[in-house]
Amino acid sequence: MKIAKEFRWEMGHRLPAHKGLCRNIHGHSYKMVVEVEGEVMKDGMIIDFYDLGLVVKPVLDKFDHSFMVWIKDKPLAEYLKKHKMKHVVVHYYATVENISNDFLNRIAAGLKKQKIKNIIAITVKISETPNSYAEARLEM
Fold first, then answer.
1. Strands of the chain, DSSP E
2. Most buried residue, 40, 86, 94, 136, by most Cβ within 10 Å?
3. Is 10 one of the catalytic residues?
């Protein structure tokens, strides 16, 4: 059985080595669908949607209305820090594929911390525009 919950946040980034427009500072209205696959428990649920939200909320709170900056983009990281702008330094190039993997791992760690043992797999699908997305899956 699978359940899914949708989440939204705003975030800026740039891809400094990109040959097109994405090398510029820009942002997206991101949408993420978190799908949880597992065994339905005695209460009739895999996981309560509220509890799933409690796991995802700290991840999104960190990134919402922030600027995701690659650790090797030092001039931009220094600018954001100097001007006290909300930003998150990441050790990966800020593509939607890498963001999906990062968020998947953060959410999986949060679910493991809750000691929920009936979950078989988690899928994270992140859309950075209405017609483009990346999807990552982790078997637990």
1. 2-13, 26-38, 66-70, 87-90, 119-129, 132-139
2. 94
3. no
Gap between the Cα atoms of 13 and 68, Å rounded:
5
CB burial of residue 75 (10 Å; 0-12, 13-18, 19+): exposed
pLDDT of 2 higher than 90: yes
Catalytic residue among 39, 65, 97, 135: 65
List, in order of start, the domains of the chain with CATH numbers: 2-139 (3.30.479.10)
State how far Cα 121 lies from the chain centre: 16
Which one of the listed residues 22, 35, 97, 135 is annotated catalytic?
22
pLDDT at 123: 98
Q: Verify whether residue 139 is a known catalytic residue.
A: no
Q: Tell me: the pLDDT tens digits for 23-62?
A: 999 999 999 999 999 999 999 999 999 999 999 999 999 9
Is there a catalytic annotation at residue 83?
A: no
Backbone angles phi, psi at 48, to 5 degrees: -65, 135
SS3 13: strand
